[in-house]
Amino acid sequence: MSLHVEVAGQGESLVLLHGWGMHGGVWNEAAAQLAQDFRVHSVDLPGHGASAPVDTFSLDSVVEQLAAQFTQPVAVCGWSLGGQLAMHWAVRKPEQIRRLVLVATTPRFAADDGWPFGMPRATLQQFAEELEQNFGATLRRFLALQVRGSDGERELLANLRERLFSRGEPDLHALRGGLDILRDADLRSMLPEISSPALVIAGERDKLTSPQASYYLAQTLRHAQGVEIEGAAHAPFLSHRKIFVSHVTSFLNG
Predict the structure, then answer these.
(1) Which one from 88, 234, 240, 247 is the annotated catalytic residue?
(2) What does the DSSP assignment read for 145-212?
(3) pTM for this predicted structure
(4) Order of strands across the sheet with 74-79?
């Protein structure tokens, strides 16, 4: 089963992986700028956008699809949930991942006694319960958390809400699977296995993924550097696109 991928530009391949409930169109403006230097592949994850629904949405199953779609070495930029997929891909298929860009992501979304840099597990469980009642309202609430505190918050929220269902509604099985990953996945033990050079980008005001989680990634990954974008929340490629593109371009061309 192939994924829907929109391709633009020439040069080294850069794969963009979106976050929970969205689709590859969330990258449109950033992808257009990045396409001036790279061959950009904006992916709709399984069951999102124009990609076919799936019976199982898990780290393993999605990475298998990505690995089958992109058989040559690529750079991968993953945002939020997409960042966890990117890291898992780098562990499962290290020969396929040339470089990693990890945007507003974390090895573990849920907090516990040994990991204070996550969301309360009860909050993620509440999202899962609300998803069954009204997934549209749940997704819109999640969007509001993504931009809270960001420069240009109101405009960003309107932008994301406009795009949310612009490629159709996401598959409920995929949404459930994505939330299961957010609630349960813990990649901390895998991080030393990742050998690809990595750029970790944090939003200073991120309310969903603590910048402290990005600092942890930058310090724990073997070949990583971290940057924090001032005034950005969970979607720095939207709120501070010029700065974001500059960081990514410099890293990938370095």
Answers:
(1) 234
(2) HHHTT-TTHHHHHHHHHHHHTBTBPPPHHHHHHHHHHHHH---GGGGGG--S-EEEEEETT-SSS-HH
(3) 0.96
(4) 4-8, 39-44, 13-17, 74-79, 97-103, 198-203, 224-229
Tally of CB atoms within 10 A around 253: 10
Q: Is 44 one of the catalytic residues?
A: no
Residue 188: exposed, middle, or buried by beta-carbon count in 10 A (0-12, 13-18, 19+)?
middle
Annotated catalytic residue 80? yes
**CATH number of the domain at 4-253, out of 3.60.15.10, 3.40.50.1820, 3.40.50.10490, 3.40.50.12780?**
3.40.50.1820
The domain locations on the chain are: 4-253
> Do 176 and 203 meet the contact criterion of CB atoms below 8 Å apart?
no
Enter the tokens of residue 123.
């909050």
206, 210, 239, 240: the catalytic one is 206
4 is catalytic: no
Q: Residue 21 corresponds to which tokens in the numbers above?
A: 């409930």
Distance in angstroms (rounded) separating the CA atoms of residues 106 and 202: 10
Q: What is the pLDDT of residues 90-117, one digit of tens each?
A: 999 999 999 999 999 999 999 998 999 9
Q: Would you say 227 and 202 are in contact if contact means Cβ atoms under 8 Å apart?
A: yes
Question: Which pLDDT tens digit goes with each residue over 126-165?
Answer: 888 998 999 889 999 889 989 999 999 999 999 999 998 9
Q: Which of 42, 51, 80, 210 is catalytic?
A: 80
